[in-house]
Amino acid sequence: MAIVETNHKIGTLEHLVNEWPIGQELTASEIYRYTLEMLGVEMIGVYIGGRCIDLIDKIGQSKKIQLRVGTSESDLGHAMQAYFKVTRKPGLLIVTSGPGGTNSATPVKDAHSDSDALIVTVGQVPNEVMEVEDEPFQGAVMVEPFSYWSKWTHRIKDPDEVQSVLKTAYYLSKNGRPGPIVIEFPSPIAQFQKAKLKHLDEVPLIDVQLKKPEVYRRVEVKTTNLDNLVEAVKVSQRPVGVGGGGVYNAGAAEELIQTVERADMPLETTLILLGGVRKHRLNLGLPGMHGPIENNLAIYNSDLVVYVGGRLDDRIIGDPKKFAPDAKIFWIEPNYPGISTVMAQRVQKIEMDAKKALHYLLEKLPQLTHERWLNQIYAWREKYPMPTHVPRKVIQQIREFVKIYEPKEPYITTGVGAHQMFLAEFWDFDPELGMKMLLTSGGLGVMGTGMPFAVGAGFADPSRQVYIFNGDGSAIMDQRAKLMAWQLARDGQYPGVKEIIFRDNSLGMVDFWQDEFWEQRKTATAIEAPDEYFKHIALASQFKYFVVDYRNGNTGSNRAISEDFVKYRGNALLEVKMLPQSVRPMIPAAKSALEMKLPNGMKLDPTDLLVGKNW
Questions:
Q1: What is the per-residue pLDDT across 535-551, written as a single tens digit (0 to 9) for each?
Q2: What percentage of the chain exceeds 70 in pLDDT?
Q3: CA pair distance 298, 295, nearest whole angstrom
Q4: Which of 43, 147, 184, 521 has a CA-to-CA distance to 390 between 20 and 30 Å?
Q5: How far apart are CA 148 and CA 215, in angstroms?
Q6: How is the beta sheet containing 91-95 ordered, strand by strand?
Q7: In this structure, are strands 438-439 and 66-69 parallel, antiparallel, or unpaired?
Q8: Helix (H, G, I), strand (E, B), or coil: what is residue 304?
């Protein structure tokens, strides 16, 4: 392993002794604090408890590190995920033993699914107690269960290893495919045991073998090289590029645009990359289950799919036998996210960093043209328009006024559900170079992350407004984190959070599935709450409250309310009362684009299926 980079310039030994007590004997908690300073850590989320009091006490004395206190370990964990998404610096979280650690399980798994660098330190009961008692008070083993969802887990047993563990955790979390690290830190070691503080140059990295548990056993994929891909692009008539989150992690968003320009190839971006690639005529947006119809027709009818930096996820693939059935499929991915056996037989993998691979393609590819193919896709867009409904109207109004009144592009966060898909379909993303404007839970699909992600974005970049799009269910789960948003606004540290709640009194996505696949039997999807529930939640949290009501046949534009909401400076909530909305277009799970459910009674025209034809 290479030595981990730090944010502090290495100076003379005398300088180092003056800045940090190098060579002195300190408690493990103090060593932890100074090591984080050496690594350049600037912010940590903490939820204090009995087994991490001393650790947080020592870090609290630092003048280099800010502590962020939250409303729950889960909310803070998601906030620190967002901190990484914005800054590209690992998010750090310290929690206490037992329930503190288990409450952080969801952010850890979400970070694993979406490749977020998150380091969670769990204060722990003494090692000797864990060894003799199955159920000590507030005790729960973390290393073994978390190993399924983490790049690395480690239980500290000696104060001399603290620096190596932290240095290794910091390096591993953000290099390669980013991901979570979980460290158990028993409180007696932290508080009472001592070792000498070393400078990081003297501290070795631990030789970690990143072996997946058996549950993630590898499915073999045939590998190929970039020259074969270059030749395939040159002869392709109907190519499609697909970019995943790994493109952003590799810092390759601009190279991706330049490559599709060179190949004159349409580009589609997964939910995790959406909002991370600049606006461009070739950037078509979301593929897969709820992608626009023309995007899925393009993939189905393609003769070449170049998938860069992501998982071949079932929400994009659908039926693996019918995914782009005429196409050669190349997959540029340096790591090994899961893949189905069927897809493994169809894919040619190039195990390489996205940035390096795209640079090579830019060197080798001539300028190509696919005007006829692109015109076909644009014709499908005209032929199969996306639906016009309340969520689309509100999203597009908010976007229009954001362009007028916001001095900078805002971050956008969401919960998970129908509202997340509406936002992905209809928000006009225009990210600044090197930034990701959409912060959302993709691989795990965690409801209730919109407000914690917004707070984390505020931690990371207090100069920008954050807009949250939520449904009833996610908004109700978000209520605790409103307190963190209030604290930030009170402290004058950022412009505020603007939350839009699409309220249809149901778990909208599941309600839609019940309409489509369960003969309209509505079981366990109704959300019963007083009509003014969100109004009182807003006022209690000191959010300015706005409301529009599209029920009872109201189809008015309410533009003035949307404009006032965007113009307001500070925390605000816009409640959009509406009837349940269809989430079509939709490719049902494990189905193909041939079986898309189209909106507004539309049907696929058989002449638009080019597979097997002499096109």
A1: 999 999 999 999 999 99
A2: 94
A3: 5
A4: 521
A5: 8
A6: 66-69, 43-46, 91-95, 118-124, 180-186, 152-155
A7: unpaired
A8: strand
The length of the chain is: 615
**Phi/psi of residue 301, nearest 5 degrees:** -90, 0
- State the Cα–Cα distance between residues 392 and 372, nearest whole angstrom: 30
φ, ψ of residue 150 in degrees (nearest 5): -130, 155
Instruction: Kindly give the residue spans of alpha helices, DSSP state H, lying in 270-383.
Output: 293-301, 314-317, 341-346, 354-364, 371-383
Positive or negative torsion for Cα 509, 512, 514, 516: negative
Q: Side by side, which strands form the sheet with 572-577?
A: 438-439, 411-414, 466-471, 497-503, 572-577, 544-549
User: Shortest CA distance to 567 belongs to which of 419, 424, 429, 402?
Assistant: 402
Q: How far apart are the first and last CA of the chain?
A: 51
Question: Which residue is associated with the tokens 């412009």?
Answer: 495
pLDDT in tens, 269-285: 999 999 999 999 999 99
For the ranges 303-312, 333-342, 578-587, 593-602, the lowest mean pLDDT is seen at 333-342
Locate all alpha helices (DSSP H) within 104-243, ordered by sequence: 105-114, 127-132, 143-146, 162-174, 187-192, 226-235
Alpha helices in 1-142 (DSSP H): 13-19, 28-39, 53-59, 73-87, 99-103, 105-114, 127-132
Bridge partners of residue 469, in order along the sequence: 414, 500
Q: Find where tokens 């007590």 sit.
A: 21
131, two tokens: 């060894």
Rounded (10°) CA dihedral 297, 303, 306, 311: 60
Q: Give the C-alpha separation, 103 to 75, whole Å.
A: 9
In angstroms, the CA 341 to CA 221 distance is 9
Confidence (pTM):
0.94
Q: In 175-267, which residue ranges form alpha helices assigned H by DSSP? A: 187-192, 226-235, 245-249, 253-263
pLDDT at 336: 66
Please list, in sequence order, all residues whose beta carbon lies within 8 angstroms of the beta carbon of residue 225, skipping any fewer than 6 positions away: 350
| DSSP reduced 3-state for 92 | strand
Q: Which of 414, 238, 200, 196 is nearest to 326 (CA)?
A: 238
Looking up tokens 């590190």 gives: 65
CA distance 298 to 296: 5
Mean per-residue pLDDT, 246-264: 97
Among 28-42, 311-325, 383-397, the range scoring the smallest mean pLDDT is: 311-325
Alpha helices (H) in 406-449, listed in sequence order? 418-426
Residue type, 34: Y
In this predicted model, what pLDDT tens digit does every residue of 24-52 receive, in sequence order? 999 999 999 999 999 999 999 999 999 99
State the Cα torsion 256-257-259-260 to the nearest 10°. 120
| Residue 415 Cα distances to 74, 405, 418, 472, 488, angstroms | 14, 25, 9, 10, 20
Nearest to 577 by CA among 533, 525, 536, 512: 533
For 122, other C-beta atoms within 10 Å of its C-beta total: 29
Q: Which residues have CB under 8 Å from 373's CB, separation 6+? A: 237, 238, 239, 266
β-pairing, 91-95 with 43-46? parallel
Q: Phi/psi of residue 56, each to 5°?
A: -70, -35
Q: Residue 306 corresponds to which amino acid?
A: V
Tokens 């078509």 -> residue: 284
- 3-class DSSP state of 452: helix
